[in-house]
Structures are given as structure tokens and as C-alpha cells.
Write a structure and sequence with these properties.
33% helix, alpha/beta, Rossmann fold, 9 helices, 10 strands, two-stranded antiparallel sheet, 281 residues
Length: 281
């Protein structure tokens, strides 16, 4: 079953969310929250397929759009970047707080659905992987963490670029798919500098004691697999795993609009299911 709803964040914005679940399951299901990445959204490419397949395996899945991801989230299921004004104002702290609002909502409404709040798993792709890592380090309600092609650091900009960025007040990035120039205000860097400890992914992963699964494609041209590898080396290796997929890249061979699954995406699904239901880690 697929249910669309809106969850209010701490600032009053409504977050578009999808619940996918098997309503024929009697026992409470593991609860999985998926976080999309930079220039992403919950309905990008193969994400809906991924979450549908996980729900078919009796995992209650939740995906959502970050409030300032650039889409008009007043619409039910937007897929176009029509709110570049919001995209420009987005920060990492805002995304962390959005995720916290989703978790709070799920706990507050735990009796309305058949999921187990004591078996909460975060999954994040790319920049969303970094957000998931940070939230896991600060929220003890999370029991397992899975990252897909995660970044290892948010401060990925040279001093020279940040200097020009500060002078101009914004930085423009090209969305190669839509050909849109998307601005990021300098407030993004100010957020990083003012909240350095909270937004340090390496610092966060070193604090996490729960099981973590890192998945990355060896041919990733957007985020090198060394990002996941370095985080794995900083993690609690007694309960963490690093899976490197050969011959696939940042989105595991999937494109937008969705043109069908791939061998790599099927491996992602299988590895996530096995990781969630294993009891020996």
C-alpha cells in the first residue's frame, strides 16, 4: 500500500512524505526512513521502486522531500525544480531538522500504523547519506544505518571558491539533467562554520556504535568510493560493513525518468533486506 501525506516540520513547512507498507502483515515491521541527496527528491528515478520492493519484503518504508530541496512541496508529488528560491536558502542544519521532524512524527503516531519504532533504520543516498549519519550520531532512537554512495564531508569547497562565494553572496551549480542553474546562498557555508561539530560527518561516524552498512559503486564519478571507504575505516568495524559494487556508479545504473531496474539496484535491495533482518550484528 502507498499512502501520501504531509508532515509539518519545526518551521511550519509541510514535508511531502510517502508511506509504503504491506497491510497484510500482522507483526510490527521494521521502520525505514529514506533520505534523498543533493538535487534529488523522493520520486527521483528508481527511489520509488527501491522503496516498493523493500515494503514487499515486509519493511515499512518512509520517504520524503526535504523542505527546501527546490521543488514546490505544496503540490502532492512534485518532480520539477520550480522553487529555486528555496533551494538557494537550504542548509545542512535545515535538512537535519527536517529529518528529525519526520522521526518525531513517526513516534507520535506509532499506534496508527503497523511499524516498530524500536527497529528504526535510516537510509541515505549521497548527501542524504551524510545527513543520515549526522542524525544517527545525535538520535539514539535509530537502531541501524545504511548509506548509498555517501559523501564523507560537507565542506567540499576550496578556500578560493568560498572566497568568491562570499563576495558574490551565492554560488551557481548546473543541474546537468534539467540544464537549470541552481543558486546556493553563502548561508550554506555560514551554517557549516557556525555548526562545525554538529555537521562533521567523520566526527559523527566515529561516535556511532550501532550497525552500519556502507554501499558504493566503484565507478562513481560524482562521489568517489573512497568517501565510503574512509568512513568505514572510522566506524565501529565490529558491526559495520562496506560493500563495493563493481561496474556501477552513483545511482547504481538507474536514471530519471525511471527506465527499469538494474543488477546493481537489485543488489542494493537484497543487501538492505539482509542487513535489516540479520540478528547477529
Amino acid at each position: 500500500m502507498l499512502k501520501n501525506l504531509k508532515i509539518k516540520n519545526k518551521s511550519g513547512e509541510r514535508l511531502n512524505a510517502d508511506f509504503r507498507f504491506n497491510d497484510n502483515v500482522a507483526d510490527k515491521m521494521p521502520l525505514l526512513i529514506f533520505c534523498h541527496g543533493f538535487k534529488g527528491f523522493k520520486d527521483w528515478g528508481g527511489f520509488p521502486y527501491l522503496l516498493h520492493e523493500l515494503s514487499f519484503n515486509n519493511i515499512f518504508t518512509v520517504s520524503f522531500n526535504f523542505s527546501f530541496n527546490g521543488l514546490d512541496n505544496s503540490l502532492p508529488n512534485p518532480v520539477d525544480f520550480t522553487r529555486l528560491d528555496l533551494f538557494a536558502q537550504n542548509t545542512f542544519s535545515r535538512e537535519l531538522d527536517d529529518l528529525g521532524s519526520v522521526i518525531d512524527y513517526l513516534f507520535e503516531n506509532k499506534d496508527a500504523y503497523n511499524y516498530d519504532v524500536n527497529n528504526l533504520i535510516l537510509v541515505g543516498h549521497s548527501r542524504g547519506g551524510g545527513i543520515a549519519i549526522l542524525k544517527t550520531a545525535e538520535d539514539k532512537r535509530i537502531k541501524k544505518l545504511i548509506t548509498l554512495a555517501t559523501v564523507s564531508e560537507f565542506n567540499r569547497y576550496t578556500d578560493e571558491r568560498k572566497k568568491r562565494w562570499k563576495k558574490d553572496g551565492y554560488l551557481e551549480v548546473l543541474n546537468t539533467r534539467t540544464k537549470q542553474k541552481m543558486r546556493m546562498n553563502y548561508s550554506l557555508i555560514e551554517d557549516l562554520e557556525n555548526n562545525y561539530s554538529r555537521l562533521s560527518i567523520p566526527e559523527a561516524i566515529s561516535k556511532i556504535k550501532i550497525p552500519v552498512l556502507f554501499i558504493h559503486g566503484k565507478e562513481d564519478l560524482a562521489v568517489d568510493y573512497s568517501d565510503s571507504e574512509s568512513l568505514y575505516n572510522l566506524s565501529n568495524r565490529d558491526v559495520s560493513q562496506f560493500k563495493l559494487y563493481e561496474n556501477t556508479g552513483h545511482t547504481f545504473g538507474v536514471v530519471h525518468p525511471f527506465a527499469g531496474t538494474t543488477e546493481a539496484l537489485e543488489n542494493v535491495i537484497s543487501d538492505i533486506v539482509n542487513f535489516i533482518f540479520r540478528n547477529d550484528i
